[in-house]
Amino acid sequence: MAHRTAIIGVARGAGLVARYGDVVVYLPRDSESTDRILGAAEAASAAADPGATLVSRLLAAVFGGSSESVVFGALAPTQGGVLVLLRGAVAATVTGAAGTRRLSGTRAMTWLDEIIRDPVRHIMLSDDATETVTAVPHSDLRAGVVPGGGLILQNPIRTDRDAQREPVKSEGAEPDRTARARPAALRETAERPPAQPTDRRPSPTAGAQRPGPPSAGPRGDSRTGARPAAPSGSSAASDTPPDPDETPNPPDELEAAAPAEVGDTTRVGAPHGTLTGADGSSYPLDRPYVIGRDPLTDEAVRRAQASPIVLAHRQISRIHARIAVEHGVVTVQDAGTPGGTFIAAPGAEDWTRLGDGPAELPPEWSLRIADRVLTHLRD
C-alpha cells in the first residue's frame, strides 16, 4: 500500500509556509527565530514521532533567550493523532465530521498545543485576525519554504505510521518492520507510565482529597471579598524567603535517543474550566501544568508531558507548583518551595498553605503563588 501524502494548499501573503516531510509550519512574519524554527521542523520530520520531537526542539528554539515574541503555527503527526501547535496571533480551523472549531495561540501565555484525534477533512492555519484563507488554485507544497499568508492541510497524516505504510497482515505474519526501527529508549518510555518530574514529590493526583477545608500547614494572610485578593508589599513576602532557588532543580538532560511520546502532552477532551489570572491570562484545564519562574527546565515539560505556566517574580521558585486534572478533578501541589503555594475558597478571609501532598482546587477557588493569583473558573 503506498504511503499517502497530505496536500498543502498555500494562500497568498507575505508570511512563510514550510513543509518538511509531514511537518508543516506557518510563520506570519520573518524573525530572528525563523531559522531555528525551520531547523526544528526539519529535524522532527525524520523522527519516529515527529510531533514529540517537534515539541522538544521548539522549546529551545522559541524559549532559548530571544526577547522577540515568536509567532507561528505548526502541524505534525504524532502518537494518537495530529499535533496542532500555536504561539501568538495564529489560529487553526479544524473541520471534520463533527463540524468546525477554531483554536487560537492567543489563548495561552506560552503556546497552545492540542492533539486532534478525531478524523478531520482539513486544517487551516492563518493569522488570528483572519477568519478564512483561500489556497492558490492547484497549489500543493511538497517540500521546502515558500511565501504565503496561510495554508490548508488536506488529507492529514495521522499517527501510527506503521499502520499507514504496511498492509494488514494475516495471523502469524512477520512483525511490523517499521516498529523495529524505533529507538529502544522510545519503546521503553512508551511501555511504562510517564516518569514524574522529581522523585521526592508524590503523584499529582495520588491521594488527592477534597479540601473542605483542606488539610494544610500554616495560615497565610487574611483577605476579604467575593474572591481572594493577591497580597501586596511586605505581606506577600512574609512566608517567602528572598532566595527560593535553594530548592534543587529538576534534571536538565534530555534523552539523546528520542523524546517521550506526546500522547500524554495534553488530556484531550472538554476542558474542566480554566485557570484565569487577574491580567486576563487563561489556561484551559485539559492538561497538566508546571508553574514557576522557569518551568521549561522541568522534566515533565521537556518530555512534553505537561505545559508550562511562566510567572516572573523573584519570590517564585523556578519550579514552584504543579496542576493535574484527573477524571474532572483539578489538583494543585507545591513543589517543596520555601515560599509555598496557597489556596482559598471564594470569599474566604484566609489563605491556606499547602502541605506535601496534592489538594483539590474546586471551581471558583483560587491559588496564590507570591502575589500572583489564579482562579479555577468553569466555562
From TrEMBL:
Comp. bias (Basic and acidic residues): 158-179
FHA domain sequence ranges: 289-343
InterPro entries in the record: FHA_dom, SMAD_FHA_dom_sf
Domain of life: Bacteria
Signal sequence range: none
Record-linked Pfam families: FHA (PF00498)
Keywords: Phosphoprotein
Low complexity: compositionally biased ranges: 228-240
Region (Disordered): 142-286
SUPFAM superfamilies: SMAD/FHA domain (SSF49879)
Name of protein: FHA domain-containing protein
